[in-house]
């Protein structure tokens, strides 16, 4: 439970909270109003077809694809570190290709790119989390809606993350991750119970089927008049996942020692993907139902950082559930920050897993400072731009890593 909690909390907790309502609703509106791929399911003016497309597109972004990216990095790091005895660092993955040159400038370049990708990928997540937490505090308690509120949030949460870092992985990160998973599960099952339960239950399997049916069309970035889906959504997500991959991959590898490759792949790809699909089906499906069946336009018209709270407002105990949602965003923020600091610290320390604590604290502070700078410099657009900018060059490294991991696995001793 502790292992899975850390894996999931590090992987995409903040993203699910931020986009769980927004993305399905946005895709629904686009396809219902005649978006460029609406004809796929006869979705224009057809609520059922538009919802099918919306959920398929959401699962396309949050299902197997990001976890496959994470699995490549995590499995390669685990293999070359634990089985081959190399340092737990991105450069070690390229030993089959570069040999001893990984300890020279080529290895330095790989690790530097990994650090920058991780820093800005984390900053994107922390910025999204701060934006949503600030919006929730304004909505629930009337806190001032300003940059100062978000800056104070980032500073406060970074201080909590530093406390968790000092406590260590077992006492700090794992405990917070378990608390987070329990709170997330409670919120999820509450919405399932009091929301459109039957629709969620049947929709879960229907959405997986619709995803499989529409996967080729969703994967094709060409031939659409509206390029926003492939360039505005998919390109951002792919870059975000790739920029996160050294951080999430190394963290997963670090907490996965002793697992078999089969256990690892099932746990890293299938289990989190299933949970992500259930989460999007529950929150996104409930929001779409509120808009279509109940005519609640506020849930569609609210800002992206407020849509979750507007959706919860239509359900019982909304004050409590909204507060739980704010706590969830904050704790996901903390777990992302402290686990990210552990990873960056390991890379910059040459693969050591027991680097000095002040060094980890330094990286936690840097992450918070970058998030503040990007929020003040351009808000959500600046966050997304930096994720794309750092994700693109690291894509090349990941493609080469795919070949390196095959060579590494082929060199493993054969079972008798």
From TrEMBL:
It is found in: Cell membrane. It is a multi-pass membrane protein. The chain crosses the membrane at residues 64-82, 103-128, 148-169, 181-205, 235-253, 265-288, 308-334, 361-380, 386-406. InterPro entries: BCCT_transptr. Keywords: Cell membrane, Membrane, Transmembrane, Transmembrane helix, Transport. It comes from Vreelandella olivaria. This is BCCT family transporter. Belongs to the BCCT transporter (TC 2.A.15) family. The lineage of its organism: Bacteria, Pseudomonadati, Pseudomonadota, Gammaproteobacteria, Oceanospirillales.
């Amino acid at each position: 439970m502790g292992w899975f909690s850390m894996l999931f909390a590090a992987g995409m907790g903040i993203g699910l909270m931020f986009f769980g309502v927004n993305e399905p609703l946005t895709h629904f509106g686009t396809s219902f109003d005649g978006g460029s791929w609406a004809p796929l399911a006869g979705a224009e003016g057809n609520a059922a077809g538009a919802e099918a497309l919306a959920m398929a597109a959401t699962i396309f972004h949050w299902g197997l694809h990001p976890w496959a990216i994470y699995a490549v990095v995590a499995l390669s790091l685990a293999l070359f570190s634990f089985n081959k005895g190399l340092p737990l660092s991105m450069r070690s993955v390229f030993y089959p290709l570069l040999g001893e040159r990984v300890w020279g400038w080529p290895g330095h370049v790989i690790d530097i790119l990994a650090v920058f990708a991780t820093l800005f990928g984390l900053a994107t997540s922390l910025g999204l989390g701060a934006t949503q937490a600030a919006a929730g505090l304004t909505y629930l308690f009337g806190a001032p809606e300003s940059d100062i509120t978000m800056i104070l949030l980032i500073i406060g949460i970074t201080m909590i993350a530093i406390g968790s870092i000092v406590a260590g992985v077992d006492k700090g990160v794992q405990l917070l991750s378990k608390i987070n998973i329990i709170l997330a599960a409670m919120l999820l099952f509450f919405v399932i119970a009091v929301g459109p339960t039957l629709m969620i239950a049947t929709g879960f399997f229907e959405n997986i089927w619709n995803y499989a049916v529409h996967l080729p069309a969703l994967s094709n970035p060409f031939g659409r008049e509206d390029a926003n889906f492939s360039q505005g959504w998919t390109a951002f997500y792919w870059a975000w996942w790739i920029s996160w991959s050294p951080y999430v991959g190394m963290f997963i590898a670090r907490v996965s020692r002793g697992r078999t490759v089969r256990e690892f792949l099932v746990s890293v790809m299938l289990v989190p993907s299933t949970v992500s699909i259930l989460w999007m089906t529950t929150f996104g499906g409930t929001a779409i139902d509120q808009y279509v069946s109940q005519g609640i336009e506020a849930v569609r018209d609210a800002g992206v950082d407020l849509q979750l709270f507007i959706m919860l407002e239509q359900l019982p105990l909304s004050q409590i559930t909204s507060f739980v949602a704010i706590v969830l965003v904050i704790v996901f923020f903390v777990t992302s920050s402290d686990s990210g600091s552990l990873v960056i610290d390991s890379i910059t320390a040459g693969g050591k897993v027991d680097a000095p604590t002040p060094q980890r604290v330094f990286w936690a502070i840097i992450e918070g400072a970058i998030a503040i700078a990007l929020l003040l410099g351009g808000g959500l657009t600046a966050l997304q731009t930096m994720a794309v900018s750092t994700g693109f060059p690291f894509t090349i490294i990941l493609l080469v890593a795919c070949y390196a991991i095959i060579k590494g696995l082929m060199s493993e001793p054969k079972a008798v």
